């Protein structure tokens, strides 16, 4: 299944392409056609499933095909972070449209938000408190709203926004399409959804839990020290065959090159490679010619290599499903494997979602003796740092040269040429 098969029009597909999504997530596959059909939706889905794009894409399509004028879609979200994320998602997906989106939340200048609303956005993404404030001031007119979205309804309820939401609903036309998303469905949420949805289509996506044979650990690190930390991990953790994931083709290429420069036996696997180059990388990884394979999610989909001791997420994946797929490459059958994930402060939301699915907190680890305070000033260029031409103390990197030939070495020693 690809996005074009979901009846999305070219200007919307342009946005999908711009953000680099190739395959719709489960909720996108189910929700997009239903929303385009004008139906109400009751979506039971967590963050990390791709639910924002699942409603943003069809909303943009409906709005770009209809008559312009007034706020035609209102999205209500519990926190300003979520409101910003949703706004950002519309921005990222919307370059092919000229749909205007304005976020509305408290704690920042009201005058500026009022001015932005006067400029006539098509979509407003709002937190309940400030929205009600603007309604009371008569600074916002919701009488043209055609599509209403309630996102993270359970969180809104937990935060005590239910009365606010009921009041806001009084200002929105009753003839509208309503999309209601919640990660859980306690009784009060069910009652609320029943009262505002009209013959909804129920959509439920379960996030697949990662295999129990895999142990998980997070390695929090400042973004700029990621490559240094990875190198230190590869030196100090006894690993066998290691699959390393990055977020983009470029980062895969770059990281594989950097590791190669460090004399690791490494191959890259990413979508821009010719089929035979991909095959060589995979065959080499399988046969033991390469100890490390650096890959993107798409390229690694379905690869079946036994004996992968570690999956290292050099970049956090985008979704919980992607995390599950990635680490499904280790810990196959009865073997145990380790999933080690480098995380930066930006990854916190997804970490929480993954922990929810696992039903447990993931252990945070610090690599002993790694200099987490390594000043970026002394090492201005990540790639130079990685290439080991210098480090903070001006010492040579700790990497030991290993013999190139001779008897077969233990897995933990095999990775260096
Ligand atoms: P959400 O559940 O909406 O918070 O989305 C979680 C993450 O998934 C965001 O970083 C999105 O950019 C990403 N995402 C959404 N849809 C897709 C897709 N089809 N392919 C890859 N990543 C996606």
If you had to describe this structure to a student in words, what would you say it looks like?
The two termini are 42 Å apart. The protein folds into two domains: 3-205, Rossmann fold; 214-413, Rossmann fold (3-Layer(aba) Sandwich), CATH 3.40.50. The chain has helices spanning 10-19, 26-36, 51-65, 80-93, 110-118, 128-136, 153-158, 162-169, 187-196, 226-236, 249-261, 275-287, 297-300, 320-327, 348-358, 382-386, 411-414; strands at 41-44, 73-76, 101-104, 123-126, 147-150, 177-182, 201-204, 214-220, 241-245, 266-269, 292-295, 308-313, 337-343, 363-364. Mean pLDDT is 84; it is low at 377-417. Helix 12 links the parallel strand 10 (266-269) and strand 11 (292-295). The strands form two sheets. The protein has a seven-stranded parallel β-sheet with strand order 3-4-2-5-6-1-7, sandwiched between helices. 39% of the residues lie in helices and 16% in strands. The protein is elongated, with a radius of gyration of 24 Å. With 417 residues, it is of the alpha/beta class. The site of adenosine monophosphate has 14 residues, from helix 3.
